[in-house]
Amino acid sequence: MSLDVHEGEIVGLAGIMGAGRTELLSALYGTGLSGRWQGEVAIDGRLVKLDSIKAARAAGIAFVTDDRRGSGLMLRMAVGLNLVMSVIRRISPFGLMSAGRQAEAVKQSFGQFDIRPKNPDIAVGALSGGNQQKVVLAKEILGNPRLLLLDEPTRGVDVGAKGEIYARLRQLAAQGLGILVASSEMPELIGLCDRIVVLRQGRNVAEFIGGVDEHTVLAAANGREA
């Protein structure tokens, strides 16, 4: 497998179930299955070793899982605390939580992603699916990543929230963030991405620029001629 994600670009990963989309994102984030991994990953032209989440985050990589309720959020904790978990060291100098820095980070996230209701003290599990997903995204963006990995970024999200999430992702890309997104929703990939890379059995078998039709991508994913 070989692919590039450029600054300010949204690249989609397409493929049928078992193609290797989630596995690729997990490997890049240092949470891949155990075993022997070979290959090179470079960020800004510098080779990096992504053998742990700590290493991935140090390299500027953030990851939004496809299971926000299982591994993306702490459902019983307040929205505000969930938001700052990815930047806890930044807002906790000398091991003490700075209320001012926390409030500033939370305010930034609420403003950027329009999280509703605008109450950082309620449990994040009480929010709608769309607003929970906004919290997951906002939490990762607070870390100022260079590359954002997204796995099924709008699964279980209503149409209105989807539109808001798409708009914010485009804004982030326009600001220079590189985004690599895996999705089983073909209209999502076609409408959101600058390029689409098609995976089949763990390999990239085709690549299309934005505006390609769904039939062509699905044909490549299934190993047929369009």
In short:
This protein is an alpha/beta fold and 226 residues long. 37% of the residues lie in helices and 17% in strands.
In the predicted model, the low-confidence regions spanning at least 5 consecutive residues are none
Q: Please tell me the CATH architecture of the domain at 1-60 and 145-226 by its name.
A: 3-Layer(aba) Sandwich
For the secondary structure, the number of strands is 8
- The CATH class of the domain at 1-60 and 145-226, by name, is Alpha Beta
Output the structural class.
alpha/beta
Largest sheet: 6 strands, mixed
Strand content: 15-25%
> What integer is the average pLDDT?
93
Helix content: 25-40%
Write the CATH fold name of the domain at 1-60 and 145-226: Rossmann fold
Sum up the overall morphology in one term: globular
Annotated CATH homologous superfamily of the domain at 1-60 and 145-226: P-loop containing nucleotide triphosphate hydrolases
Q: Tally the helices.
A: 9
Explain what you see.
The chain has 226 residues and is of the alpha/beta class. It has a domain at 1-60 and 145-226: P-loop containing nucleotide triphosphate hydrolases (Rossmann fold, 3-Layer(aba) Sandwich), CATH 3.40.50. Helices cover 37% and strands 17% of the residues. It has nine helices and eight strands. The protein has helices at residues 21-28, 53-58, 68-72, 79-84, 99-113, 129-141, 159-174, 186-192, 214-221, and strands at 10-14, 41-43, 46-48, 61-64, 147-151, 178-182, 195-200, 203-209. The protein has a six-stranded mixed sheet, with helices on both faces. Helix 5 (99-113) packs across helix 6 (129-141). The chain is globular. It starts with 9 loop residues before the first strand and ends in a 5-residue tail after the last helix. The model has no long low-confidence stretch (mean pLDDT 93).
